[in-house]
Design brief:
Distance between the termini: 75 Å
Radius of gyration: 22 Å
Order of helices and strands: HHHEEEHHEHHHHH
Number of strands: 4
Shape: elongated
Strand order of the largest sheet: 1-4
Number of helices: 10
């Protein structure tokens, strides 16, 4: 039995556990324990103690599951402080509790920024139905390491957004080409949100085909007509 697992091995075990969750519809915590048993450990917590990061990481909390738990479990967002240990914070990307310095490692966290991931997890929590929230708890005054960073990033992005992008994202409920463009723009992380001219947007969207450019031109006409005359 291995006495020390590398971070890459731990990541692979987590991926295997998520696969079990999808294939067998089992709770995430049970899947982790099954992986640990296969490696010769009684449970996931004991396996993690034999990882290279054992001094900074403890087992992650069970994620929301379809079957109701017997008591009200704590629901952690990305960056939430551990209720039992104020020096640890939950990393949803790695599915672990870890020290604050963990969030500074760019090799571990590519893609979304920590602020974006926190705001995304907060939005998903807020959108859960009352029935879904009934078996989970998150204190209104929960401490989050990333909330301040998230607000700063959000303010910076909002400041840089052009009037057209602001208008476009109000059209996502439409069932027409403009609505399709609005939904694509909302999902596209590289969309030029600060673009102030139609030509600049056309250059960006032309890679997706002429029909998308036509959607843009229709949207631009409507946007221009909605603006007050100077």
């Amino acid at each position: 039995m291995a006495v020390s697992f590398s971070s890459s091995q731990i990541d692979r075990f987590k991926r295997e556990a998520k696969k079990l969750v999808r294939e067998l519809s089992m709770p995430h915590s049970d899947a982790l324990d099954r992986i640990a048993t296969q490696q010769g450990f009684k449970n996931w917590s004991l396996l993690v103690k034999h990882s290279d990061a054992a001094t900074t990481i403890k087992a992650a909390p069970p994620m929301p599951r379809k079957s109701a738990p017997s008591n009200h479990d704590r629901y952690y967002l990305h960056g939430d402080q551990d209720d039992d240990n104020p020096t640890l914070f939950y990393c949803a990307r790695c599915d672990v509790f870890t020290e604050a310095g963990h969030f500074d490692d760019p090799q571990r966290h590519r893609g979304e920024t920590h602020g974006e991931r926190y705001l995304g997890s907060l939005d998903r929590w807020n959108q859960r139905s009352p029935d879904s929230k009934a078996n989970w708890r998150r204190p209104a005054d929960a401490v989050n390491l990333l909330a301040g960073i998230a607000m700063t990033e959000h303010f910076a992005r909002e400041t840089m957004r052009a009037p057209f992008h602001r208008w476009l994202l109000t059209q996502t409920d439409r069932n027409d080409p403009v609505g399709d463009l609005a939904m694509d723009a909302r999902r596209d992380k590289t969309f030029p949100t600060g673009a102030s001219s139609r030509r600049e947007l056309e250059r960006y969207l032309s890679r997706h085909g002429d029909h998308v450019v036509q959607e843009l031109r229709q949207a631009w006409r409507e946007f221009s007509a909605s603006q007050p005359v100077a």
